[in-house]
Amino acid sequence: MGLIVGTVFGLPIYTYGLVVLAAVLVGAAVAWMNVRLHGERTGTLLDLLLLGLPAALVCGRLGFVLHHFADYASHLLTVLCIWQGGLSFYGGMLGFLLAVVAYSLIQGVSAWHWLDLLVPAFLVAIAVHELGIFGMQLTMGSPFPPDLPNDHTLAEYVEYRYRPMGFQDMLYFFPIALYQAGLQLAVFVLVALAAFVDGRFLHCLRPGCLFLLGLGLAAAVRLGCGFFYLSSDPGSVLPLGRLLSGGTLLAAIALFVVRSRTSQSLFS
User: Fold this and answer.
1) How far, in Å, CA of 157 to CA of 169, rounded?
2) 210: domain range?
């Protein structure tokens, strides 16, 4: 799949940008349905989108620039050239979360409650993003043996131009992005099931626990899958992606325990 679909008024339209747009639209649709299902105001959701999407764009760009700072160090003004591509999806999600917390503090509403409502949308958006990554062949898992038998094993054929240096003779790679998309959808189902069971029978989860549960499981999936990606830096003991995923997982576990045991409610 090509990296550039075409141009509009001379500006390139990147395939990855369309993937991110699809993830945002699907996530927004899921959020709207969940807000309606819980009888909350869709106007609040619209406010969050109007504030959160620009914050996501800024943080997504900032995350990409920081991760590739060596490419921008000598030409800092190119940081502003977002039409040249360069966006961190997970940095964008962090920006949106920060916007939700800021909006909640300003308006005096419960950030934890709204994060609970939005976490299904986050999980579905991640799954859509990973499906796009799989289709674009941007990342891949370890290669299958060259004598892979035709036993319908789920594998990813990678076009020659996308195969990394040293692996040009390898036809098939583990489709880790596809695995991750499926696992994130499984996390979505688990969170939805937990919300249904608690809302219908248990009534024991405090506001924010569903969000932290989804966040922790999503980070665990990202961390686990990270060990099976074909690393571009074999000498790296703990790449940045796995470090951030592991830190997010530990933070989610710690906050979940605190939220479950304390009567005080930060960001309530």
Assistant:
1) 12
2) 4-140+175-261
